[in-house]
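Many introductory courses stop at the sequence. We go one step further.
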Amino acid sequence: MSSSLEPQPKPGWLLSWMLLILATLVFLLALDLINLPASTFLASMIAAVCLSVFWRCPIVPDIGFKVAQGFIGGLVASSISYQSLVSLASDWPFIIGGALWGIIMGVMASLILFRLKILPGPSAFWCFSPGGAMIMVLMSGNYGADMRLVAFSQYFRVALVSILAIFVSGFFVDTSSIMSSRQLPIYSIDFSDLFLTIIAVLFATYLAKIIPLSGGALLIPLFLTGLAKAAIGFEVSVPFFIRIPCYVLVGWRIGSSFDRQVFFTILKALPAMTLCLLVMIAGCGLYGFWLWVGLGLSPLTAYLASCPGGIDAVLIIAAASEANLSFITAMQVMRVIVVLICGQFLFSWLTKRYGFKDLSPKKSPPKFRGGL
């Protein structure tokens, strides 16, 4: 006999899931036509938002949400390679300086949103962290921010930065031949690495249930798989048939928490958010200008290295050009690492510093159904 506390399926739940899957496929095809970064996540989130705002949307179970976060953490760990870390040796002051400068620009843009009261509550401080978009979205809910607003602003940043990167790169290289991440060749899968990755992620996800760490469902698998990769020597493998469903589950879970009030809040704030993002991008561009003049890098290398986000699109553009790929990779990876290490502490401090002292990492965002 089922407990009365268990969620009961509502009438039409099968139709809701069918519509959600169909809408996701439609938006995915549309976004792929314009080669928009993170199209799988964006399509699933947009589809869930549409159903939540205009009808009703099914909710992804907690276990699926947490396992998806675990594999995303493993995916981040797989992108941090030994070669990219070695390249930090000679240029580490410039690389770390660029990462810190990006965070400063993100904080400035967030403070503008907060001071002008464009976004409610602590959500403003998590909107423009310069990297780790999905990580910041998943972590923000643990500090009282509204994950729906953070998700929109973070991926709006990724899209805008990537589009501008392609536009600027057009002055230096023919970008018409650049492949999107969906068109890159499918690498061969080592099933022993895949098996070890699955074991590590599932074990880390279990640890996240018993260790009271904010954002643990994401961070514990990230660090555990990274340590296992360094200690055992296997390659963390999160192939497309695991990665894509994880993006979809997270997108559905976040999108299902939207409602009409949040939807119209975003529409009202969109012009100001765009202006703040342009200020942030311009500020990071100043650091790129300094890299060009002071360090002697090519203009394209300097710009791509200092871009505040869209790491996939940036590296694809760099790989198809004459840019210094090793420097760009090192600086982009370091920016994500610095955001991972410092981001949650900095933005949680900002929320408390500006009058949100009642927040606690153990509290879930009040409007996000299911929490973390």
